[in-house]
Prior knowledge:
Elements: E1 6-10, H1 15-19, H2 22-32, E2 35-41, E3 56-60, H3 68-74, E4 78-81, H4 86-95, E5 106-109, H5 114-123, H6 133-141, H7 165-168, E6 175-178, H8 190-199, E7 204-207, H9 213-220, E8 226-228, H10 235-244, E9 247-251, H11 254-261, E10 266-269, H12 287-293, H13 319-322, H14 326-335
Parallel strand pairs: 1-2, 1-4, 2-3, 4-5, 6-7, 6-9, 7-8, 9-10
Amino acid sequence: xxxxKKILIVRFSSIGDIVLTTPVIRCVKEQTGAEVHFLTKAPFxxxxxxxxxxxxxxxxxxxxxxxxxxxxxxxxxGCIDLHGNLRTLELKxxxxxxxxxxxxxxxxxxxxxxxxxxxxxxxxxxxxxxVHIVQRYLAAAAPFGVVDDGKGLDYFIPEKDRVDLKxxxxxxxxxxxxxxxxxxxxxxxxxxxxxxxxxxDEAIVLLGGPAEREIGARxxxxxxxxxxxxxxxxxxxxxxxxxxxxxxxTHDTGLMHVAAAFKKPIVSVWGNTVPALGMYPYLPxxxxxxxxxxxxxxxxxxxxxxxxxxxxxxxGHFSCIKKQSIREIRRVVKSID
Length: 337
């Protein structure tokens, strides 16, 4: 097997997708001994800030020209493309230029299975392999001598971002409720979220970004047991609140994968997207429990309508969310020790 000295791993976005690359990062570092660099977009660079398996995080704001010289001079002998888009195609072309200062690196690109996703979302023909996306990421790293170590996801929180619960007035035992998601068709309605907050008698910490601050304020209004942490912490701080939670109730969003990295009990709520797309919580050894705790409406012929989501239901009925039983969600959350 060829020895690799310096390997570039590429994933530009977003939170969950980058967290899902961490088994590749760890396995490449530990199994090849190579220097590992990771290329991503600037807003997501902090995700890997404290990751001990990454020697250098390189970030861009708009395009590759910002770091083209740095990449060309780095001397990579391996490149693992876990994004697979036009930008990474440009990157690989730049690294392989005949007059580049270093030999052409060995490259491997992750198969996004776009055709299979199209069949599933457009025609409801399921040709998706029953394989988590992490395993597909690892398959892209296999030519570098990398095998799955079975340890799951990683998330490392810088000491400066750790949250002292007593200092911020949060009790030691609470449910972390991740109320955000990039698209409305992946989220419970505000009325449903309020119902859960009103009826669940355990302490609840609402998590989300600045965009969820106002809805978090409405959900927590008049409820002493509900704390609105949306927009109050950076990503690492929110991740630390996930880490310290008893259980995590979450939509299909980035903090769901952060929760999986901390091996937390997860109750995941699914709207227009489906676990069959391969991006459910990655918990090796706990697959059965994870599946049992999923909340999804299975008898809908319109689902999945998208691999990402919409701002409103394309058909107007929004049954994938409106049929969700808050009573059942609450029962599952309470049943977890």
